[in-house]
Amino acid sequence: xxxxxxxxxxxxxxxxxxxxxxxxxxxxxxxxxxxxxxxxxxxxxxxxxxxxxxxxxxxxxxxxxxxxxxxxxxxxxxxxxxxxxxxxxxxxxxxxxxxxxxxxxxxxxxxxxxxxxxxxxxxxxxxxxxxxxxxxxxxxxxxxxxxxxxxxxxxxxxxxxxxxxxxxxxxxxxxxxxxxxxxxxxxxxxxxxxxxxxxxxxxxxxxxxxxxxxxxxxxxxxxxxxxxxxxxxxxxxxxxxxxxxxx
Length: 247
Hints:
- It is globular, with a radius of gyration of 17 Å.
- Helix 1 packs across helix 4 (66-87) and helix 4 (66-87) runs parallel beside helix 6.
- It has two domains: 4-15 and 106-246, Rossmann fold (3-Layer(aba) Sandwich); 17-88, DNA polymerase, domain 1.
- The chain is built from nine helices and six strands.
- It starts with a strand and ends with a helix.
- A six-stranded parallel β-sheet has the order 3-2-1-4-5-6.
- The chain is an alpha/beta fold.
- Strand 2, helix 6 (137-146) and strand 3 (155-157) form a beta-alpha-beta unit.
């Protein structure tokens, strides 16, 4: 039986991955290095900002000092917030974006179509809701508050709160632990459904012992095989189906 839902953030609730990609490339220009759109979606999308920079640095493309790491992370975070605040608009339509097709990756940081209705459905049925994301907490809070959706989420686990990002299960396990503590419950992982848009997140959810639903906002269904169920739109997922996934 369903007892909680934990969402990824970027690509599931909000259409913001292109802004992250652009912000990274703007701060990396000074090092004469740019991420390709294919590399970003194929290799880096599931990583936190710090993990992404560490991978690129380890590959010998940056050679950053600790101070430069901190400065780059701060610059990227500030730039993303500026871009999101400027470009965030109305609810954006859910899409089947192909990884290799740059033209289908749109600008903006709008809430994805169907999200408010789905959150209302969960809240009406008293299902606790959380977020586990590789994004930074100020970014998540800013977008949710701007969209008037912050009140739906009991807990938010962001990149700053974990040592190991997805596909490690640490974030999802922490989110459930915090939900149980806040609500004085003892929800088991198998009664928690995670909604994700990438294989990294799906692998993390499964490793945490949770059920995993994949939404094809970012990757096609064939790239989302660890999922218990794959959907195109949140409106395709009913409360009875969520309960069935947990049974």
